[in-house]
Amino acid sequence: MKTRILVVDDEKTITDLVGIYLRNEGYEVQLAYNGADAAQAILTQEFDLAILDIMLPDIDGFELLRTIRTDYTYPVIMLTARDSQTDKIEGLSLGADDYVVKPFRPLELVARVKAQLRRYTSYGSRDQAEEQQLISINGLVINPDARSVTVDEKPVRCTPIEYSILLYLAENRGRVVPVEDLFRAVWNEEFMASSNNTVMVHIRHLREKIGDDAQNPRFIKNIWGVGYTIE
């Protein structure tokens, strides 16, 4: 089956152009020009990735993101004309995986789509011949083969990025992982000034899911000015 991508933007020219580039890469693309049509598609169809414009005339991109994260963990890339750290942090806090500011180069967006899909595919499947042992830390259990996480035997639904962060820290248990190393390992991109906020927001979101108190952490500890560790 072809990979299915939802593209939502009220600027028809942009939506259609992105659709053309993605279809040229062999993806099946569903286009929506308003939030209502996008919400209907999200609730009735299955996708592997979504590209959401934030500023829509009816239902904004943040609300669509909330709808997706209610039931799905597939990657979401946010589009916006506003280069605002506040918007970026809000989107990441709600579970967005990437953030692209308009105007953008279509080929760069396609590259980001491919990167997110590679991560999602890796998150969703693994060669069964490469069986790995469970990672168990103080009630937190990570099953690398099933790509699952439980805390006190209760399942935790993580996005691919959240899972990658948790797994990387767990695999480096007892070592303080610098923020720069964590970002490069998970995002596979060069670290920039804004990257620290990106990591911080995802860590916060991950802590909420695993029931970790930042002031008195059970799992993820923040070593100020250095990075994070799981002991």
Automatic annotation (TrEMBL):
<feature type="domain" description="OmpR/PhoB-type">
    <location>
        <begin position="132"/>
        <end position="231"/>
    </location>
</feature>
<dbReference type="InterPro" id="IPR016032">
    <property type="entry name" value="Sig_transdc_resp-reg_C-effctor"/>
</dbReference>
<dbReference type="GO" id="GO:0000156">
    <property type="term" value="F:phosphorelay response regulator activity"/>
</dbReference>
<dbReference type="Pfam" id="PF00486">
    <property type="entry name" value="Trans_reg_C"/>
</dbReference>
<dbReference type="GO" id="GO:0005829">
    <property type="term" value="C:cytosol"/>
</dbReference>
<keyword id="KW-0805">Transcription regulation</keyword>
<feature type="domain" description="Response regulatory">
    <location>
        <begin position="4"/>
        <end position="117"/>
    </location>
</feature>
<feature type="modified residue" description="4-aspartylphosphate">
    <location>
        <position position="53"/>
    </location>
</feature>
<dbReference type="InterPro" id="IPR036388">
    <property type="entry name" value="WH-like_DNA-bd_sf"/>
</dbReference>
<dbReference type="GO" id="GO:0006355">
    <property type="term" value="P:regulation of DNA-templated transcription"/>
</dbReference>
<keyword id="KW-0804">Transcription</keyword>
<keyword id="KW-0238">DNA-binding</keyword>
<dbReference type="InterPro" id="IPR001867">
    <property type="entry name" value="OmpR/PhoB-type_DNA-bd"/>
</dbReference>
<dbReference type="Pfam" id="PF00072">
    <property type="entry name" value="Response_reg"/>
</dbReference>
<dbReference type="InterPro" id="IPR001789">
    <property type="entry name" value="Sig_transdc_resp-reg_receiver"/>
</dbReference>
<dbReference type="GO" id="GO:0000976">
    <property type="term" value="F:transcription cis-regulatory region binding"/>
</dbReference>
<dbReference type="GO" id="GO:0032993">
    <property type="term" value="C:protein-DNA complex"/>
</dbReference>
<dbReference type="InterPro" id="IPR039420">
    <property type="entry name" value="WalR-like"/>
</dbReference>
<keyword id="KW-0902">Two-component regulatory system</keyword>
<protein>
    <submittedName>
        <fullName>Response regulator</fullName>
    </submittedName>
</protein>
<dbReference type="InterPro" id="IPR011006">
    <property type="entry name" value="CheY-like_superfamily"/>
</dbReference>
<keyword id="KW-0597">Phosphoprotein</keyword>
<feature type="DNA-binding region" description="OmpR/PhoB-type">
    <location>
        <begin position="132"/>
        <end position="231"/>
    </location>
</feature>
